[in-house]
Write a structure and sequence with these properties.
287 residues, alpha/beta, 8-stranded parallel beta sheet, 9 helices, 14% strand, binds zinc ion
């Protein structure tokens, strides 16, 4: 298992904000202390503008340099553009690693799946997964699927990939919940699986299974995963029901697709996040 991460993703924070450096610091500690899953660590490479601009407007990219909050959830930080670009660089490296046959996880922040073409929102500034999916298509991939199991709808990814015939988006998320979208399928390539709050765990897994079966009918050559761990039963931001072993199962299920895949961290705000990540990665790695 390759894990792409570095200290740039812990360099910014906002008092009281749930999307905080401790998410990563605690995950580093847990993953470094364990011996069941062999890990090779690497740091994110550069991210060039051309890749970012397939998913975002030039105005949006320029705005990241202004010290002006986007919304209450999504503050501006000094050097924000550099932090956001490091997270994109990790996503692009994850794509390369998947193509080289590795199992790979980008353990970075900020997350990306709420960022639209011209708007930062929901703790997200640049849409890491959409940028990597479009990079894959621009560099020879024929069909790319994005599988988003974060408990929140990946509205930004959907908006960016909408009607792209070579990409398909599958999102399993709580509804009603932030950001309030994702109640129906859109554009013939974006497929939404809304799950009511407090849906029993077995049923939640059943919905995830249906989404995975649906994804297989698209016959992707590559799968990009928006791996959010906030559908966990004890996550403070939503009312999901998944347990640690369900994330293991999810990792295993994605591995069993038999398609190269890369995984990017999105949400996950409980103190158990490091355990959930480890369980998921063991499933992805076939441990
Ligand atoms: Zn989330």
């Amino acid at each position: 298992m390759r894990i792409i991460t570095d200290e740039r993703c812990t360099g910014y924070s906002h008092p009281g904000h749930p999307e905080r450096p401790e998410r990563i610091l605690a995950s580093w500690e847990r993953l470094r202390a364990q011996t069941e899953l062999p890990i090779s660590w690497s740091t994110p490479g550069p991210c060039d503008d051309a890749a970012v601009l397939r998913a975002h407007t030039a105005e949006h990219l320029a705005r990241l340099n202004r010290l002006e909050n986007f919304d209450e959830d999504t503050p501006a930080y000094p050097n924000l553009a550099a932090y956001a670009r490091a997270s994109v660089g990790a996503a692009l490296d994850a794509l390369k690693a998947a193509r080289a046959g590795e199992t790979v996880f980008s353990l970075m922040r900020p997350p990306g799946h709420h960022a639209t073409r011209n708007r930062a929102m929901g703790f997200c500034y640049l849409n890491n997964v959409a940028i990597a999916a479009l990079e894959a298509l621009a560099t020879g991939a024929k069909r790319v699927a994005v599988f988003d199991f974060d408990v929140h709808h990946g509205n930004g990814t959907e908006a960016i990939l909408l009607n792209n015939p070579d990409a398909a988006f599958f999102s399993i998320h709580q509804f009603p919940c932030y950001p309030g979208t994702g109640t129906r399928n859109l554009g013939g390539n974006c497929f939404n699986y809304p799950v009511p709050p407090q849906t029993p765990r077995g049923e939640y897994r059943h919905i995830l299974t249906s989404a995975l079966e649906h994804l297989q009918t698209f016959k992707p050559g590559l799968v990009a995963v928006s791996a959010g761990f906030d559908a966990y039963a004890r996550d403070p931001l939503a009312q999901g029901s998944l347990e640690t072993e369900d994330f293991y199962w999810l990792g295993q299920s994605l591995r069993n697709l038999g398609v190269p895949l890369f995984n990017l961290l999105e949400g996950g705000y409980s103190a158990d996040l490091p355990e959930l990540i480890l369980a998921y990665l063991k499933g992805v790695d076939g441990k």
